[in-house]
Amino acid sequence: MSEEFLSGTTGNPWESAHLALVEEAVRKAAASEIMPRFRQLAVHEIVEKNGPHDLVTVADRSAEEHLTASLTALLPGSVVVGEEAVHADPAVCEALRGDAPVWIVDPVDGTRQFVHGDPGFCTLVALARHGEVLASWTYAPALDEMAVAVRGHGARVDGTEIRSGAPEPGQVLQVAMSHPDFTTPQEKAALLALRAEGVHSRPCGSAGLEYLAVARGELDAIAFSWENAWDHAAGLLLVEEAGGTDLTLTGERFRVTGGNALPFTAARDAATARFVHQLLASGAQ
């Protein structure tokens, strides 16, 4: 069902009206639920979920509700795995392993940036089935940029195809990573191995926008120590369709259904992914 949903009469998903309808649904959710609250949040509209670095706002919750209604209406029989729904009921994640098409939704990726009035946040939507991500939408409403990827058909930003390419030989690799202080001891050791010669590492911002930077070739790699599907599904497909790849700590590809060896990396080309993976693996030993 999900494959047919993406295919137009020509078999080219980029000519499918459904692809545009999903984009429209994402834009509408952002326009009605997120942007009116940007830099307008009251104190009582911001809540800590799991500490001061894990925030949720009224915009996150209302945008997810909006997307849940609009996306399931576009594809009858589909279900939604959203960040806020999973926080309320972890069993919602089981849908990722089921037979129904799944919309994986992060209504506001980069909530901390959103709360602080920083435009570096985005809305992430991916369509998956049987654990395979088929299409994704990464929308930065404050920057008015829309990135779309379709499995086997490439990646585009505002309609223009993007390719990640490879870093220039000998250049210092630019890598964004999870903050080591919020990890297990083994993950911390692995991430700290990225502070190596020839690598400039920094803390990551919005995961979705970091993935977009890799897909554009503006960032060489990212390394994350958590595996929430809503943070990674859209961006991993975007990077892959732009020419990049990903590797978990054991050298396998990342699975949105979970059970990944962490940390993992996504990089703009295979050689960079292997190099970053080797650093992570050496640090984890």
Automatic annotation (TrEMBL):
Gene Ontology molecular functions: inositol monophosphate 1-phosphatase activity; metal ion binding
Residues annotated for Mg(2+) binding in this entry: E83, D106, D109, D231
Reaction equations catalysed: a myo-inositol phosphate + H2O = myo-inositol + phosphate
E.C. designation(s): 3.1.3.25
Keywords, ordered alphabetically: Hydrolase, Magnesium, Metal-binding
Highest taxon of the lineage: Bacteria
SUPFAM superfamilies, alphabetized: Carbohydrate phosphatase (SSF56655)
GO BP term (any one): inositol metabolic process
Cofactor: Mg(2+)
Name assigned to this protein: inositol-phosphate phosphatase
